[in-house]
Amino acid sequence: MPLSIADQNKLDAFWSYCVKHQYFNIGYPESADFDYTMLERFLRFSINNCGDWAEYCNYLLNSFEFEKEVMEYFAGLFNIPFEDSWGYVTNGGTESNMFGCYLGRELFPEGTLYYSKDTHYSVAKIVKLLRIKSQLVESQFCGEMDYDDLERKISASGERHPIIFANIGTTVRGAIDDIAEIQRRIAGLGIARKDYYLHADAALSGMILPFVDEPQPFTFADGIDSIGVSGHKMIGSPIPCGIVVAKKSNVDRISVEIDYISAHDKTITGSRNGHTPLMMWAAMRSHTNAEWRRRIQHSLNMARYAVDRFKAAGIDVLCHKNSITVVFPKPAEWVWKKHCLATSGDVAHLITTAHHLDSSQIDALIDDVISDLNQRAA
What we know:
- The protein has helices spanning 5-21, 64-77, 93-107, 122-130, 147-157, 179-188, 248-251, 275-286, 289-312, 333-338, 360-377, and strands at residues 85-90, 112-116, 133-137, 163-167, 197-201, 226-230, 242-247, 256-258, 263-265, 325-329, 342-344, 347-351.
- By secondary structure, it is of the alpha/beta class.
């Protein structure tokens, strides 16, 4: 049954709204310059990736072949042999992080999860859902975990199997926890590497660090046990999604046989979107490493431009190495609402994703921040 004229007009109005605001998001880390029109024809199908992409599934409309290639690509990015890894395309960063925490809990059922105050808010929900013991660790001003506090809290609790949640780019300040320092501190407490679990939340930076010359430690070769990265951030996607990669030996612990689809399931959700693996596959196949490097270098250059403009105006600004998150004092409400900025406490940030082709949006924002400061001083 076709839509009524009124309903069609409503859709047309929403289309115009989306076109107008497509590149609004200087305050949020979504890349909007993607093009998946080659995949539009698949929207007529109910593509459901239920079960393990590495096995046969009796639900035939799946995109397992493409998902496998996506996972092979990310295993390479994160320095783990593909045959030693397993992961899948998730619903987003929260599911990826839950999967990592779930694996840690299954490996160490009585272990305590340690995460810093600058960790994404979803981890507090994950703690409740998994009913996992947890300890909140202090953060440094820059947004990194306070390693002294981490060491103190592990020592005071007598925990012998800590589960560590490390941020590879915090939500607000873009800070990257020092994986090597975390491991040094735990080793100093007499805890062997086999006796703790380390998950890395690399929602934004997971598609930045592989393509810069001097990345901070963040891969399996650096000592992590699992990692999550978002598909709708640096890569870009019309549907929120993520990718999680873990050690296959740990994933095998949670595998469940599902008789009615003749498959095993190792995921959080079971039935999964079969279209997002197609999108991630298309993004991987249509961009060379050199192109990713160019996109990311452009984003980093735009962040540096914003930092220089703030400094020239005498405004405090923070931007970490290899980060596109530029942090500055929270401006008046009219400024952060006009520019759709993300704010937290007394700070705000802008994020320079690749669709910011020039400095126009950055300049407009910083001009308003300066105007706001002048009005307050008058």
